[in-house]
Design a protein that fits this description.
The protein is α+β, with helices and mostly antiparallel strands. It is built from 25 helices and 25 strands. The strands form six sheets. Strands 5, 6, 7, 8, 9, 11 and 12 form a seven-stranded mixed beta sheet that branches. Strand 21 and strand 22 form a beta hairpin.
Length: about 625
């Protein structure tokens, strides 16, 4: 029998229901907060390059001990983040080096607007303008700047009684004076797309930074034009044609790479070349000479028109998703504040060869870079315009000029605009992956996406073992169709050089133990997401309680690893790690670097050979 409720009882139940619903809704924010296996709040950060694993990732872990960071090594392009967004899988915080606002424009609606934050307020307006869309939105902010200009052997100038240049005409005069003495004056590495773009913009900075040039750039970056403005850009091309004629750039220059110019410079056969602050501080000088080298600007019509060309070590942005939760928003902005702070930028610019774009960060410079100081004070640091089209089309047009295919500045301008306006080709599907795997690390299964990739690489190369940090796999593996470009997004392509070695079981133990013992530098482990994945053997490890790990034992197919056995093993990582670990610390002599990178191996196996992605294995146990 069903008892009928009176009105008073119904009202009481309704009130309780409202209170209960209110309580549940209030708790929604915390329930939706991403949690790691250990109960800490999880924040995913995509790092553009593996050098950020050396000091930057450990620094963030120390600053936020209550946060479980998931670090992934991203593909260095906005297209990579656009691809992740299509799968609803944007990291909380993103970094990228090859960047333009135009490329990032289609992501405006899914990125957090930083324009009204304390972060944006710390930037000089000159530089913040380059990150502001026409509607006032600011999604990306730059960290400290690489300086990419003209490296000059000052001692060589003095030996040949040639004055250091101060403007464009004196630069040309110096080049011609060296040529008369049988020494090359200035010869960049035009085989690289970034060199073509930077030399074009560097020598044209005085035109690109006029009022018209800045207005054109904002229109271009905001997607309102896809054409170069003739008034702004024709003088830029005219300057490059003049440079070509007066410095004798030959057609073969279109194929030359950076190491060729470095070798000439080191041998004293070249007086000046395009390079970075890092190139300058690693120059050892000519044999038997105490050479003094300096980094000089791109020269303009007069000294006041000289500019240093810069590009950020990387740009940083935050996904809008999750920022509706006030506590989550506060945490993300605090992390970004730490990334952009004095200490954060010190962990990027540890070579003392970078400059800051912000008012409250002062980075120490090496004495060789002292001549930058007045330009920094005057904010005469031009940030390169580096859209995907700018890289690609600059190389095509500069090569056309060098080879004599484009005869006049007007022809070069028209060719540039024609290519900028070209419709992108439709990319074909090259492979289908049947089953997807998560990139999230767990203490029982490890990183299943990374395990699947490196099990596949082990099978492709027919080796016994593979050992590599799991974060070199750049995220989840999605089931479905892949183009060649999308397939490359699965692994970090800028580093992870493979080394093939032959090791005994004892040496495999030593390799893992020495890697786990690293406290800093390349190859260091900062948390679970940067632990190594092992293919072909299993690791039983323990946490030390201070954020580090120790090895208990190694097994192969569940049985104790034979310490007397001999195994072929592929190590993937920065060569600074493999060289330091395998050659310096372990004295390994039986090794080779003559192997293609992981992305090439994966493409060859899945596409050319018709192979299938291997199943992941439970390669790690953490006690």
């Amino acid at each position: 029998m069903i008892k009928k409720l009176n009105g008073k009882t119904c009202g009481y139940i309704a009130a309780v229901a409202v209170l209960l619903l209110s309580f549940l809704l209030t708790g929604c924010g915390s329930d939706d907060t991403p949690k790691a296996e250990n109960g800490k709040e999880k924040v995913t950060i995509a790092l553009w390059g593996n050098d950020l694993l050396e000091n930057y990732a450990p620094y963030l872990c120390r600053q936020f001990p209550d946060v479980e960071f998931e670090f992934v090594l991203a593909t260095n392009s906005i297209d990579y983040y656009r691809y992740l967004n299509e799968h609803g899988d944007l990291p909380d915080i993103m970094t990228v080096r090859r960047f333009s606002m135009r490329d990032a424009m289609t992501m405006k609606d899914v990125l957090y607007d930083l324009s009204n934050t304390d972060l944006a307020d710390t930037y000089y307006g000159t530089y913040l303008d380059n990150y502001t869309y026409s509607d006032g939105t600011v999604n990306w902010l730059p960290v400290c700047a690489e300086v990419d200009n003209i490296i000059v052997n000052k001692t060589l100038f003095e030996e040949n009684d040639i004055p250091l240049p101060t403007d464009y005409d004196s630069f040309i005069a110096a080049c011609q004076a060296f040529e008369a003495k049988g020494i090359m004056g200035f010869y960049p590495d035009y085989g690289q797309d970034y060199c073509c773009m930077e030399v074009l913009q560097g020598f044209g900075a005085e035109y690109l930074y006029t009022m018209e040039g800045r207005e054109w750039r904002q229109q271009y970056e905001s997607g309102h034009t896809d054409q170069l403005d003739e008034k702004v850009w024709l003088p830029v091309f005219a300057r490059f044609f003049d440079l070509k004629e007066k410095t004798g750039i030959q057609p073969e220059a279109a194929t030359e790479m950076n190491f060729v110019q470095k070798n000439r410079f080191t041998a004293g056969k070249l007086a000046m070349y395009r390079g970075t602050g890092n190139d300058l501080i690693t120059f050892t000088g000519r044999a038997g000479k105490n050479d003094e080298v300096v980094l000089m600007p791109y020269f303009g019509t007069e000294k006041k028109d000289d500019w240093y060309l810069t590009y950020p070590a990387f740009q940083v942005a935050a996904a809008k998703k999750g920022m509706e939760n006030p506590e989550r928003k506060k945490l993300i902005l605090n992390i970004m504040q730490a990334m952009l702070s004095q200490e954060g930028q010190n962990n990027i610019s540890h070579g003392k060869n970078m400059v800051s774009y912000t008012k409250d960060v002062k980075l120490e410079l090496l004495p060789e870079l002292d001549n930058l100081r007045p330009y920094i004070a005057e904010n005469k640091m031009y940030i390169r315009l580096a859209s995907t089209d700018m890289f690609k089309v600059s190389k095509s047009v500069v090569h056309g000029i060098i080879k004599g295919e484009l005869k006049t500045p007007q022809e070069a301008l028209e060719a540039f605009n024609e290519q900028m306006n070209a419709d992108p080709a439709q990319e074909p599907v090259v492979v289908h992956i049947d089953k997807g795997y998560s990139h999230e690390f767990t203490s029982r299964h490890g990183n299943q996406a990374a395990s699947a990739i490196y099990n596949t690489i082990r099978k492709k190369l027919a080796v016994d073992m593979v050992f590599v940090q799991s974060c070199y796999v750049s995220g989840d593996i999605y089931a479905g169709d892949y183009t060649e470009r999308q397939l490359s997004y699965l692994t970090h392509t800028d580093a992870a050089w493979p080394m093939l070695a032959r090791l005994t079981g004892d040496q495999v133990y030593e390799m893992v133990e020495k890697t786990f013992a690293l406290k800093s530098g390349y190859g260091v482990i900062s948390n679970d997401s940067t632990l190594y994945v092992s293919s072909g053997f299993e690791m039983d490890i323990a946490r030390n309680g201070d954020g580090s790990y120790k090895l208990n034992r190694l097994t192969r197919n569940g049985k104790e690893l034979d310490r007397n056995g001999v195994y072929t093993i592929i190590l993937m990582g920065d060569r600074n790690w493999t060289n330091q670990l395998m050659i310096t610390k372990m004295g390994i002599t039986d090794f080779s670097y003559d192997i293609d990178k992981c992305n090439v191996q994966l493409y060859d196996y899945l596409v050319k050979e018709g192979g299938k992605l291997e199943e992941p294995t439970d390669y790690i146990t953490i006690n």
